[in-house]
Design a protein that fits this description.
Shape: globular
CATH architecture of the domain at 7-193: 3-Layer(aba) Sandwich
Number of strands: 36
Mean pLDDT: 84
Structural class: alpha/beta
CATH topology of the domain at 7-193: Rossmann fold
Strand content: 15-25%
CATH class of the domain at 7-193: Alpha Beta
Largest sheet: 8 strands, mixed
Strand order of the largest sheet: 29-30-31-32-33-34-36-35
Low-confidence stretches: 231-257, 666-680
Radius of gyration: 31 Å
Helix content: 25-40%
Length: 929
């Protein structure tokens, strides 16, 4: 697609202002004055005065509508006949009564509509200001997308004084057509946009949003300030919404309150944080951080880690910044020996003492300060530098600022500054901002800005993961698990009992304790004797959610007498506290008190917008009060699971226990000392595997609504689920087996092995982000003619942004299949996550959805050495099959008119072809699916 479907909105070839007589004169004249400066030119048309002249190229013009609500639909019709492909609607009122009609008209007329209740759009480089924002933006590289006009107006007003420029400003309004996802999709490929700032209030289509956000972050930094959304706690986020169209799992009214810890603990704020982190975005928590982050994104360099060096002309600011670094989880590494030597050599009087923070004299000379910045920035163990300056009567502050500005232009590491004070330092901050060096007033704001933007690199590692729905750790008994849930639902039940819950976990290869349900004290005694003391005893009831809270659990029961006493005590207590609860008996199971064990928690619940979410953290009876949990979305792979664990405090306890066990094994027998490293990480590895397995369960069984595994006891020999509770509901019928997920798993099922005409074998599989270098090598190996036929260009390699765009795809809205063969010179991804070690790419075929979501456009290229072997035909048939399975209606493609071999292949596959009306050198080929 040469031109994005929102090009008429962001880059129109003509602008048409539509109004209705004297109605809304003030707004019309304001817009007319602003649009007059547009480089595309502006024409005014009075709706009641006649028909507008059509634009030169249909679909390329932008209509700006400022008229009464009742005239909007008619104006859209005229705009469509005038060649407008987009419209900005400034409704007279809120337009509530007309929105559905306007949206339907926009779809029918193929006009992309921004608004209503929008403050419009600005494209400063083109002089386009189709907005009612008070301040016009100046040209720059940051795009601002806001779901609030007030926030957009505030950002523009602030940017004027801060010297920040924008590539685009969009105040979305009610999003009846153009959504935040659409805007992100355009800006991801916009050459004028270097980074994106998003103010977000709500998401309406989670999968579309995640797809667009992940695509944008793959190309450039995206910073998001999310407003609204409660933290975990209370039933508010769980009381409704399970039957939303996007993930429609209808839940009976009796279940619309939380029945598990997961359902009770987590709210929409937790889910949005997980979504932004998984998409690779930079999350901004406070409005003040938004400004600081914008300044940072406008600077030349961005950090690739959290290792920071602080340089200050005084002790106080440096120590304060050092304390803040710990709070914001920013590392202050030790300087290398070489760096320390170079710093010490900067002064003859010994006043420069190498350390981090590096504290210089309060009256430091400007040249010395700048040289110190250059030295520490060259340290390979440093990711960024913070320069602090406090005014001093013996320091020429303007000269020092100029020296820092000069040094900043040559640094290869990110530098940001904190010039404390205001009266004397305010003009100096403008000097640094102009470099640009992001410069803030306080250490708090500076450290928060660095920590926020430094998380971009970390989150990018998460966004690049493409987890498989079924991991390579042994296939679970998916069908057995599905039959168990079907049986429970057929009985009209929505809660699995303890035995059923553990059976489902076991089907997915999660170790569980075996529970014997007893219905009398005598049965409990027999079970305990068979199991062996000590045992644990727990009430078995579908109506008792948290057993310990109601006195329904007895631990470490060591004798027959205790079994009899505890049986009676548990029954009496539960009946007194919950007289209406159905009691099926008391479960007896082994008491898991492993030496060096820890209790952790794994949970699942269904968010009304984003669908299933997973939680992990410290477990046990105090799980809801420990505040040590983190949230992630399925599907998970080992990398994502490990990062999920590392975000919690309990991870430190698990790691410490592993290290202690490794040391103990090594010390006990000198001959086994070499095995200590092998044992290190056993607990972390066990939890990691179980998180991946729970993720598989959630992906493959959409009936699961809530799940608790608490506690999961983790010891030196692995992990075992001691208690489990699962809530289910009938899943909605869907053609897509993963329709309940916000993130589509890597489609392993598409992998195929083929034998070519010459007898050689190859493998077709979906592309993976770790294929980036393989794709680059493939490009470099193509002949000039093959590259020209594919790209209508002779480029020999792809730019980093293009490479990311081609390999970091969202499998829901596009598909790319690669054909690979064995290679002795593989340069692809490294490490255990590499999907194809020792392989080279010999062909790529892909499709991308068109804006109508019912048709797609394809592209294909085959290595020169394999052309004529039937590979292209098989690749095309494979991508056609995928498009048909997705329910698409038509596949289109553009082929150079002189590419006779490709046209012959298209005809053989049943494609029709015709001349491209806009380019006679191209043929448009189409296949009805």
């Amino acid at each position: 697609m040469d031109r994005h479907f929102l090009a008429a909105l962001f880059d129109p070839k003509a602008v048409l202002l539509l109004h209705a007589g004297a109605a809304r004169t003030e707004v019309v004249e304001l817009l007319a004055a602003r649009l007059a400066a547009a480089s595309a030119g502006m024409s005014r048309f009075d709706l009641r005065a006649g028909a507008p002249a059509p634009s030169a190229r249909p679909g390329d013009a932008l209509a700006v509508l400022a008229l009464p609500d009742e005239d909007v639909e008619a104006a859209l019709g005229l705009a469509a006949r005038s060649g407008c492909g987009a419209a900005v609607v400034f409704a007279e009122h809120d337009g509530a009564a007309w929105r559905e009609d306007w949206a339907a008209a926009a779809r029918r007329l193929r006009i992309h509509l921004l608004g209503p209740a929008a403050l419009g759009i600005q494209r400063p480089h083109a002089g386009l200001d189709a907005s009612l924002l008070a301040t016009p933006a100046t040209p720059g590289g940051i795009a601002l997308v806001c779901q609030s006009g007030a926030i957009a107006a505030s950002m523009l007003d602030w940017a004027r004084d801060a010297g920040i420029g924008y590539s685009a400003v969009v105040a979305l309004g009610d999003e009846i057509d153009v959504t935040v996802a659409d805007a992100l999709d355009f800006l991801a490929s916009d050459g004028r946009t270097h980074s994106i700032v998003l103010y977000l209030e709500a998401v309406h289509d989670a999968r579309r949003f995640m797809s667009a956000l992940r695509g944008a972050t793959a190309a450039k930094p995206v910073a998001v300030l999310k407003a609204g959304g409660e933290p975990g706690g209370g039933p508010v986020p769980r009381t409704a919404g399970y039957s939303r169209a996007s993930f429609g799992v209808p839940v009976p009214a009796s279940l619309r309150t939380a029945q598990t810890h997961a359902g009770a603990m987590f709210g929409s704020r937790d889910v949005y944080e997980a979504a932004l982190r998984r998409a690779g975005a930079v999350q901004i928590r406070y409005f003040l951080q938004l400004f600081a982050t914008v300044e940072y994104l406008a600077s030349k360099h961005r950090p690739h880690g959290r290792r920071l060096v602080i340089v200050s002309n005084g002790t106080g600011p440096a120590m304060l910044a050092g304390d803040l670094a710990q709070e914001f989880r920013v590392a202050l590494p030790e300087l290398s020996a070489q760096t320390s030597e170079r710093l010490a050599a900067l002064s003859t009087d010994g006043s420069v003492r190498p350390s981090n923070p590096l504290i210089l004299r309060a009256d430091v000379a400007p040249a010395l300060y700048a040289d110190a910045l250059r030295v520490v920035a060259a340290d390979r163990g440093v990711d960024g530098v913070m320069a602090l300056f406090a005014p001093h009567p013996l320091v020429d502050a303007p000269a020092l600022t100029d020296a820092v500005a000069a040094a900043a232009r040559d640094l290869v590491k990110p530098l940001f500054a904190c010039w404390l004070g205001d009266h004397t330092t305010r003009p100096l901050r403008k000097v640094l901002n102009a470099v640009p060096v992001p410069t803030l007033r306080t250490p708090e704001a500076a450290m928060a800005a660095y920590a926020t933007v430094a998380s971009y690199w970390h989150n990018q590692q998460l966004s690049m993961q493409s987890p498989r729905s079924i991991a390579a750790i042994g296939r679970p008994d998916v069908e057995g698990g599905r039959m168990l849930l079907d049986a429970v639902l057929a009985e009209g039940r929505t809660t699995l009992d303890d035995a059923e819950s553990k059976a489902l976990l076991a089907a997915f290869r999660i170790p569980v304790t075996q529970t014997t349900v007893t219905r009398s004290p005598t049965e409990a005694i027999v079970a305990a004797q068979q199991i062996g003391f000590p045992v644990a005893m727990k009430i078995v009831s579908p109506d008792v959610v948290h057993k310990s809270d109601l006195g329904g659990v007895a631990l470490d029961v060591k004798s027959v007498a205790e079994v009899r006493a505890q049986y009676a005590a548990i029954m009496d207590t539960v009946r007194a506290v919950a007289p209406d609860a159905r009691i099926e008996g008391i479960g007896v199971e082994p008491m898991r008190r492993l030496r060096g064990s820890r209790e952790v928690y794994v949970g699942v619940w269904r968010d009304p917008v984003f669908g299933p979410a997973m939680a992990f953290g410290a477990g046990g009876t105090q799980v809801e009060f420990s505040h040590d949990t983190t949230v992630e979305f399925p599907p998970l792979n080992p990398f994502l699971a490990r990062r999920m664990i590392e975000r919690t405090r309990i991870a430190e306890a698990l790691a410490a226990a592993d290290e202690s066990e490794a040391a103990r094994v090594g010390d006990a027998d000198p001959s086994t000392a070499g095995l200590a490293g092998v044992r290190t990480g056993q607990r972390l590895a066990a939890v990691q595997a179980i998180l991946v397995r729970v993720s598989e369960m959630v992906c493959e069984l959409p009936a699961i609504v809530e799940l608790d595994v608490n506690p999961l006891v983790v010891g030196p020999d692995g992990a075992v689920a001691v208690d489990a509770r699962i809530v289910v509901a009938p899943p909605r019928a869907a053609a897509d087996r993963y329709a309940h997920l916000a993130i589509v798993p890597y489609p392993t099922e598409l992998r195929r092995d083929w034998q070519l005409r010459d007898g050689t074998w190859c493998t077709l599989r979906p592309i993976d982000p770790l294929d980036a270098q393989r794709v680059q090598d493939f490009m470099r190996g193509l002949s000039e003619s093959t590259r020209y036929f594919r790209f209508v260009s002779t480029i020999s390699e792809l730019a980093p942004r293009q490479l990311a765009r081609f390999t970091q795809i969202d499998y829901d809205r596009e598909m790319a299949l690669v054909v690979v063969q064995p290679s002795d010179h593989d340069t692809g991804g490294r490490g255990s996550n590499d999907p194809a070690p020792g392989e080279r790419i010999v062909g790529v075929v892909r499709y991308m959805l068109n804006p109508d979501l019912t048709t797609c456009e394809f592209a294909i290229v085959v290595a020169d050495a394999l052309q004529g072997h039937g590979l292209g035909r098989r690749m095309m048939q494979a991508i056609i099959d995928v498009a048909r399975a997705k329910g698409l209606e038509r596949m289109d493609g553009y082929v150079l008119a002189n590419n006779s071999k490709m046209l012959a292949l298209m005809h053989a596959l049943g494609f029709e072809d015709r001349a491209d009306p806009e380019d006679p050198s191209m043929r448009l080929v189409s296949l009805k699916l």
